[in-house]
Specification:
439 residues, alpha+beta, Spore Coat Polysaccharide Biosynthesis Protein SpsA, Chain A, Jelly Rolls, 6-stranded antiparallel sheet, 10 helices, 21% helix, globular
Length: 439
């Protein structure tokens, strides 16, 4: 089975744990048997491989998420990377061309496209295999997975099939309705549209060539920034006559808000947090190293991270986005391919960051034009390379780099350091990468 997982968006509705770099699918809130936590991305990827160990999984994502995906799934994960964001149709067209031209998958094969962040059980992935098998038959150009509604939701679009059979021709699509109209749709056998569908590679590749002038994957990638921003629904689905839908009655939740996310959490408290017996329906998610105490609260979510602190009624938390948009703050936490960093302090001419490097990983070899840097090794061992000269470092060692100096650090064990940036114009764009001179 070929699967394309769509991983995009900034997930601002889950602020302060999510930001422009760390989308909701990277937040680790699902507890494993060994006591560790995994993210939506890790959970879905693990579930796919459990159901179909030979599945070809490609993650369609933006370049801002590449490091986080490598951090959570490893360096070997397959990705189709957008050079910039252009909505779902260009992203899916690029991923399709990637599968054909780079992965060399036969155009007659089918692929299933679905979001990376639903909360589902294994039966969902078995349904995806059924979706792929149905697309293989060629009875329709698109085969959608329709979710059996559990209530008349205003959050989803609806698919109305021509019959109540498990696999049926799609009669019509309906946009997000009011509750009353949703009830009417459901009485007609309507299904939630979860953005899950399958097609033969050649079908979508031909459609992409009709709408975009390009020769192959490399050409499409090169002109990607010039493409129209348009959703897959508008570009393809609404104009396609041969569409089928398969019903799915298993568990499926879109964890896009704190209200829905807390419904899927196995624990009421993650991180340092306590509440008294007068609390009910309260969830605490705390990534800070300070305790959170809740008393006498009901149906509240409390979340704390380096980005900020949220205290909200669970229903009201669904309307957080416009308020977060007004904040316009700097990203304070991010996962990178080599580890993670957390901003500890920001001043006018300085920034202090706590950096964690995973064993066997290193930063890019780079320099800065407008700032000096100082590293203080807190724990672990490794090696720095500064202007081509190697040095073994251990806890207590201090490394200084003037502006223009080329530098990197390798972690032999898990390595933690405090990085102090000093300069008049500190920003994320002040970085030039180089090939490593030292081996």
């Amino acid at each position: 089975m070929n699967i394309v997982l769509l991983s995009g968006g900034s997930g601002k509705r889950l602020w302060p744990l999510s930001n422009d770099i760390r989308s909701k699918q990277f937040i680790k809130i699902f507890k494993n048997e060994d006591g560790t936590y995994e993210s939506m991305l890790q959970r879905v990827y693990r579930q796919i491989k459990k159901v179909d160990a030979d599945a070809t999984v490609t993650i369609a994502t933006s370049k801002t998420q590449v490091s986080a995906i490598h951090n959570q799934l490893g360096a070997g994960v397959v990705m189709s990377v957008e050079p910039c964001r252009r909505d779902t149709f260009p992203a899916i067209a690029l991923a399709t061309a990637y599968l054909v031209d780079v992965m060399k998958i036969d155009q007659e094969e089918s692929v299933v496209v679905c979001p990376v962040d639903p909360y589902v059980d294994e039966d969902y992935f078995k349904a995806l295999k059924g979706l792929s098998n149905q697309a293989d038959k060629g009875e329709a150009n698109l085969v959608l997975l329709g979710i059996e509604p559990t209530y008349p939701s205003e959050k989803y679009g609806y698919i109305i099939p021509e019959s109540f059979e498990n696999t049926a021709t799609v009669k019509i699509f309906k946009e997000k309705p009011t509750t009353d109209i949703a009830e009417e749709y459901i009485s007609q056998g309507a299904l939630w549209n979860g953005g899950i569908f399958a097609y033969k590679l050649k079908y979508l590749l031909n459609k992409a060539h009709e709408l975009i002038e390009f020769t192959d994957y490399q050409d499409l990638f090169a002109k990607y920034a010039t493409l129209e921003k348009i959703s897959f629904d508008y570009a393809i689905v609404e104009k396609e006559d041969k569409i089928q839908v398969q019903r799915f009655a298993g568990q499926w939740k879109d964890l896009g808000t704190w209200n829905t996310l807390t419904e899927a959490m196995q624990e009421f408290v993650i991180g340092k947090g306590i509440m008294n017996d007068d609390c009910s329906g309260v969830h605490i998610v705390n990534e800070m190293d300070v305790p959170v105490l809740a008393m006498g609260l009901h149906n509240i979510v409390i979340s704390a991270s380096p980005e900020g602190i949220l205290v909200s009624d669970k229903v009201q938390s669904s309307y957080i986005k416009p308020f977060v948009d007004k904040l316009g703050q700097q990203v304070k936490f991010a996962e990178k391919s080599w580890g993670s960093y957390k901003v500890v302090d920001v001043e006018t001419t300085s920034m202090t960051i706590k950096v964690t490097l995973n064993p066997g990983y290193s930063m890019n070899y780079h320099s800065h034009k407008n700032r000096d840097e100082v590293w203080v090794i807190v724990s672990g061992t490794g090696r720095t390379v500064v202007d081509g000269l190697e040095r073994v470092v251990k806890p207590g060692d201090v490394v200084t780099m003037a502006n223009g100096c080329r530098h990197t650090i390798f972690a032999d064990t898990e390595l933690k350091l405090i990085e102090v940036q000093l300069g008049e114009a500190i920003n994320v764009d002040d970085k030039q990468k180089f090939a490593l001179e030292f081996d």
